[in-house]
Specification:
92 residues, mainly beta, 6 strands
């Protein structure tokens, strides 16, 4: 899912599967096993685009985890676990 150091959007299908309809929270577990709870907000639908969900606090999380612009952060989500897990961070 394309995002950046300044913004992280969750696709609608993933957000709905995670139980997020309008607003909610997401837990992100970094590679050291430290969990952070972040708020998720729905962005209003514009023209033909679908609703999008933005993770608030993402820029701070990126800085705290020393992820730089150009790195690829691979996240995983499992149906039976209420968190996103950082599987890998790849320096490109």
């Amino acid at each position: 899912m394309p995002s950046s150091c300044s913004r992280f959007r969750i696709p609608v299908k993933v957000a709905r599967a995670m139980g997020i309809d309008r607003c909610g929270k997401v837990t992100i577990e970094n590679m050291r096993g430290v969990e952070t709870n972040l708020n998720v907000s729905a962005e209003p639908k514009r023209s033909k685009k679908k609703n999008r969900f933005t993770v608030l606090g993402w820029p701070a999380w990126v800085r705290e985890n020393n992820i730089k612009m150009g790195y690829l952060c691979v996240l995983e989500w499992y149906d039976d676990m209420p968190a996103l897990f950082v599987r890998d961070v790849i320096e490109e």
